[in-house]
């Protein structure tokens, strides 16, 4: 048993209303050497009042999934299949005008690099007031008052004075709070947090996650947490969708998935967490590397690194199927995972 498994389980919300339903999301990227599939038929559901973590190594498609959902893909990338429903609206099929109406009241995103996400040419007050002016038609004075309230809400000290400051005049943790404030300004149904604690020290990370948890409860939001941090998932998420090579390979409640993984990739991730602080102790890792997107294998995407691989795995790609009442795994031999 690894250290992250021992975290107390987070309460789940099995009867909560689905806030975001993603079904078969597929994204292709055009490169100079041909088109590659970065996200391949990804499906998951995020419920109101819960945190769903998208977990996996860098390059597995987590952030690409997020940017596709909020309509911020680069010009070389295209959504070629799937749906993503927020309420009754498929945001992937919506036109630009509809997306603009949904951005803020229904769907919002917090990026990992706050200094890049915030506009350096405008004061934070101007940027925080913008959602109220665009969506609610507020006058400048009223929008400014709401911006100050937002700063207070996310723990920015002396908001009346600092509202006229520029992003570079804030620390990394404070900038991340400002970015969260902008995202939750209109009480969205779904908040996507893309690596929200990257480059922050441990203490500030804890503060940011505590803030997100508080806002989630306050607004009954669904939070989609994108991360590669197993400990963060164990501490903060209710459910997890493990991604590998652009696909979801396992889903379920965090407490169940981490205690009894049903996919060899998930088990490999958990086994790689150090359980000993002794100098010279062996560190486990998953052998090999993720497949090149230009040459995804015919069968299971994990076959070249999997200790359970057999001929069936090389010929037939496993689909995400139930392995219990609340669990799904994309492995032909999920019952044997604990033996490796």
Task: Note down, in words, how this protein is organized.
One of its GO terms (biological process) is peptide transport. There is one protein chain. The protein has 340 residues and is α/β, with parallel strands linked by helices. It folds into two domains: 227 residues, P-loop containing nucleotide triphosphate hydrolases (Rossmann fold), CATH 3.40.50.300; 81 residues, no CATH class. It is built from twelve helices and twelve strands. The protein starts with 17 loop residues before the first strand and ends in an 11-residue tail after the last strand.
Note the main attributes of this structure:
340 residues, alpha/beta, Rossmann fold, four-stranded antiparallel beta sheet, 31% helix, membrane, ATP hydrolysis activity, ABC_Ni/Peptide_Import
CATH architecture title of the largest domain: 3-Layer(aba) Sandwich
Main beta sheet: strand number and arrangement?
Answer: 8 strands, mixed
The helix tally amounts to 12
| Helicity, as a percent range | 25-40%
**Cross-sheet strand order for the largest sheet:** 6-7-8-3-9-10-12-11
Indicate the topology.
Blueprint: E1 18-31, E2 34-47, E3 51-55, H1 62-69, E4 77-86, E5 89-90, H2 96-102, E6 107-110, H3 114-117, H4 124-136, H5 140-153, H6 159-162, H7 172-184, E7 190-194, H8 202-219, E8 222-227, H9 230-236, E9 239-244, E10 247-253, H10 254-259, H11 264-271, H12 311-315, E11 321-322, E12 328-329
Parallel strand pairs: 3-8, 3-9, 6-7, 7-8
Antiparallel strand pairs: 1-2, 1-4, 4-5, 9-10, 10-12, 11-12
Helix pairs in contact: 4-5, 7-8
């Amino acid at each position: 048993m690894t250290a992250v498994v021992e975290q107390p389980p987070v309460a789940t919300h099995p009867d909560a209303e689905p806030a975001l339903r993603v079904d078969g999301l597929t994204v292709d990227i055009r490169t100079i050497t041909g088109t590659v599939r970065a996200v391949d038929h990804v499906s998951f559901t995020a419920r109101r009042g819960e945190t769903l973590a998208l977990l996996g190594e860098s390059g597995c498609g987590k952030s690409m999934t997020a940017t596709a959902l909020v309509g911020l893909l680069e010009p070389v990338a295209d959504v070629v299949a799937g749906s993503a429903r927020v309420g009754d609206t498929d945001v992937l099929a919506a036109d630009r005008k509809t997306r603009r109406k949904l951005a803020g009241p229904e769907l919002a995103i917090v990026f990992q690099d706050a200094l890049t996400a915030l506009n350096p040419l405008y004061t934070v007050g101007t940027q925080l007031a913008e959602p109220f002016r665009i969506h609610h038609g507020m006058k400048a004075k009223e929008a400014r008052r709401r911006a100050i309230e937002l700063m207070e809400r996310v723990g920015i000290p002396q908001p009346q004075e600092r509202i006229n400051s520029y992003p570079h005049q804030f620390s990394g943790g404070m900038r991340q709070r400002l970015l969260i404030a902008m995202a939750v300004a209109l009480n969205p149904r779904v908040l996507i947090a893309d690596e929200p604690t990257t480059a922050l020290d441990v203490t500030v990370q804890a503060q940011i996650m505590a803030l997100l948890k508080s806002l989630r409860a306050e607004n009954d939001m669904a939070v989609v947490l994108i991360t590669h941090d197993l400990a963060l998932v164990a501490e903060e998420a209710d459910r997890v969708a493990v991604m590998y090579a652009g696909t979801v390979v396992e889903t379920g409640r965090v407490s169940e998935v981490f205690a009894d993984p049903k996919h060899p990739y998930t088990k490999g991730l958990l086994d790689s967490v150090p359980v000993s602080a002794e100098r010279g102790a062996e560190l486990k890792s998953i052998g090999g590397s993720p497949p090149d997107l230009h040459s995804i294998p015919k069968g299971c995407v994990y076959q070249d690194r999997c200790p359970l691989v057999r001929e069936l795995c090389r010929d037939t790609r496993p689909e995400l199927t139930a392995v219990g009442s609340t669990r799904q795994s994309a492995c032909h031999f999920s019952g044997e995972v604990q033996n490796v």
